[in-house]
Amino acid sequence: MMRFPSSLLPGTPTRLGAHWDGMGVNFAVFSANAQQIDLCLFDPRDRREIARFHLPEYTDEVWHGYLPDAEPGLLYGFRAFGPYDPVNGHRFNPHKLLIDPYARRLTGPISWSDMQFGYRLHSPRADLSFDRRDSAPYMPRCVVVNDAYEWEDDVLPRVPWDRTVIMEAHVKGLTMRREMERNPQPGTFQALGAPEMIAHLHRLGVTTLELLPIQCFAPERYLLERGLTNYWGYNTLAFFVPYAGYLANGSPHELRAAIRRLHKAGIEVVMDVVYNHTCEGSELGPTLCYRGLDNAIYYRLVPGNERHLINDTGCGNTLNLSHPRVLQMVLDSLRYWASEFHVDGFRFDLAPVLGREPYGFDPGSGFFDAIIQDPVLSERKLIAEPWDPGPGGYQFGNFPPGFAEWNDRFRDTTRRFWRGDAMQQGEMAARIAGSGDLLDKRGRRPWSSVNILTTHDGFTLEDVVSYAGRHNDANKENGQDGHAENYSANWGVEGPSDDPAIVNLRGRVQRAMMATLMLSHGTPMLLAGDEFGQTQDGNNNAYCQDNPISWLDWDRAASPEGQVMIGFVARLSALRRAHPSLRAARYMHGRHHPLPGLADIGWFRRDGSPMGQEQWGEEAFHLLGVRRASTDTHDGVDVTYMLLNPGGDDIRAMLPGPEGRWTMLLDTTSPEKPETVLDEGTKDVVVPAHGLLLLSLAPDAEPDASLGGDAP
Questions:
Q1: Which residues are catalytic?
Q2: How far apart are CA 603 and CA 429, in angstroms?
């Protein structure tokens, strides 16, 4: 066992956290209001405390000290001394062992106990009381690490935004039930980087894998008491630590190896990150890290009533990114994942919180300014979830250039349009065109709209066409959690059906919606499992279901129906790659003409005539036709025509100009039908009920200047 000195050397405040320099370890932790911070060291064999030191120096609100001869593998934690004065926002309690906010590895799980609360949990004085019991037996230990890893020739794929196809997936849910030849540990990063998973992503044309939270998170105590857990992981404990549950052998190098394999296959990895709140909850929550180090700094407090935390997140607390040290922690964390794990980008959960200053949401807030000017982070893919429960929480379209945004307007409109709701044609047209009505400003491009049809939060695509209402009884919240309005339809039977007519109709609607997603301008995002009919049995809020409700059923993928849908999605991806008009790099408004008389985008009626302004408001409208034209890499012009029929009857539709030979690229009602060249001079086509057709014009077609079409 290491022999310890009587006290620490001064060390340096410049790098927060615990850093080994080859001769020892420097410890530095921020706290503006603490009066003393102790470093506690632990025996790796039995987890007992074996040494305790005061951090001897306090510089620029950073407590620091240096332990000579210490090496990676050392276990440690902090205790913070200061006022316990909840009324004024201070909650220091040295009886509570604290995690280092900059810890890069933890050993051991949280074992929930009353001792982790800074106050007596059942006291009539509530959080104004004080708990003197030691929480150390129930807390994980921080581990000093050496991040050295041999990346060799790893190169970030840097997939252009206009060629990006995202799949959102959960590490465990994606891999838990997938059989693989080399027997990687199911549900871990090992399985994520397996050849079978990479082959599946390649077949689908997925370029970018967006992973639900992989930073260390903690399940809520109340969920564990119900026999449930926080499966999704939106409850961060440590912002620099990979979640141990996804590590087969405990080494973070498993994540690095998976990313390296995905990069070698040309696939990017984007992390879903939660910097809006922590797992410590409200002022009545436990003291695990940030609350004990400096509650009044790390969290936003209610002005004039500092005992209480602002809850803009709906999760009990809100990180105070207006403070430079909290902002620094978030930026340091992002750079750590980008540099030490070669992550390709970040999706920011509840992103308005990150830009909310005391006076409200500001696209020029310190957080956004810092990200945009950062030489590392500004080159990564940045995606915002543009809503939160706080005041002014819906901010879609208001994020600064450089950020893409999840587009819930696309989701809701597509579902309503294909359900047959009236008066959706104008809204659907705007979403197909990349939502330029909301995003085309400040030089932003169509890729800024991340078009979503389904996500982890809500129904799967199979359930969108199988359930009219949510069925969340398994969550043990009286079935009232989750979104009440899903714009779904069961098409005659609630839940599974063996009626061939209903099964056929559901399949038609699913494929039509999937085609709308993949063939619209913007960045398409698939939900893992939608490509083969994954169901959650009508649960639209499976956040606590770490079981087959959420794990992908790969038997469905192997079924004949699953293989047809997988092939269909792969075909959509191939069409998107092959036709520039389907993935426009710039917004189309009908004002640019790739050829004389041929507008870049035009909208047409069933008789082939351009849509007039008066037609957009027709309540009995049942057909939408969009022609798009774009120059290709060979200086030619790619022209496609897409027809959408959400109604229950087939519709004969005239083809618009220019005249020429058309090819039927896709009929969503016949997913395996190959491309077909139509006869010369074909003037019309039949658009099947609940179907979408996609046609392309031979490149030698002559433009007809009389047919332009009006942009919506």
A1: 349, 385
A2: 8
